[in-house]
Amino acid sequence: MTSLKFLAISGSLRRASHNTGLLRILPSLAPSGVAIDLYEGIGNLPLFNEDLETLPAPSAVAELRARVAAADGVLIATPEYNSSIPGSLMNALDWLSRPVGASALLGKPVAVLGASPSQFGTARAQLVLRQVLHRIQAQVLDHPEVTVFRSYGRFDSEGAFLRDAMTEQLLGELLTGLVRMSRTDASARAV
After folding, report:
1. Of the ranges 5-14, 129-138, 145-154, which one carries the lowest mean pLDDT score?
2. Residue 11 has what DSSP assignment?
3. What is the pLDDT of residue 92?
């Protein structure tokens, strides 16, 4: 029986994305009782516009908000573009942070990870992402930091992870940390 459901969101629109590839491997590394659902609609979200905030929300936005709300935790994989997160991911976060005071991410346990061809991985993008998530009051898992560097050697041309023990260990620790945080959150809500 599944006891926890996590939603995995890739900040990349690229078909053979290394970040989406990281998320696709997670179900095979997840602890027993954890289901991971991959959200692949980030490119369908309209650009955030306060004029569109009135109810009802655009259908793609409503779907994303509902899936985040239904999840016990969220995993966000970000590429690094110009030392920051991509616009597509920021757009999704803008939609998820609204309406003020009723954000789908408010208090939600979130784990951050990412892959990049650079020698620094996604360290800078993750710093920006963590700042945004803290601002919108998500609960962000601090450790481990999964910043897959030189990703061109860790994924095939279709974006499938080539599997290496160290990265798999870190991903497993990330999932374990998110499980712990999600269960603590659920216990706190039950009190």
Report:
1. 145-154
2. S
3. 97
Residues 6+ apart with CB under 8 A from 188: none
State the Cα–Cα distance between residues 21 and 159, nearest whole angstrom: 5
What DSSP assignment string belongs to 73-137?
A: EEEEE---BTTB--HHHHHHHHHHT-STT--TTTT-EEEEEEE-SSTTTTHHHHHHHHHHHHHTT
Contact criterion met (CB below 8 Å) for 113 and 73:
no
Secondary structure letter of residue 161 according to DSSP: B
For 33, half-sphere exposure in the C-beta direction (CA atoms, 13 angstrom radius) is: 9
What pLDDT was estimated at residue 100? 81
φ, ψ for residue 33 (rounded to 5)? 90, 5
**Count: domains in the chain:** 1
Which structural domain range is residue 164 located in? Answer: 4-190
Q: Spell out the residues 6+ positions from residue 131 whose beta carbon is closer than 8 angstroms to its own.
A: none
CATH number at residue 116: 3.40.50.360
Count of residues in the chain: 191
* Span 85-112, pLDDT tens digits: 999 999 999 999 998 888 999 999 999 9
- Rounded to 5 degrees, φ, ψ at 44 are -90, -10
Is the separation of the CB atoms in 78 and 112 below 8 Å? yes
| Most confident of the ranges 67-81, 104-118, 160-174 | 67-81
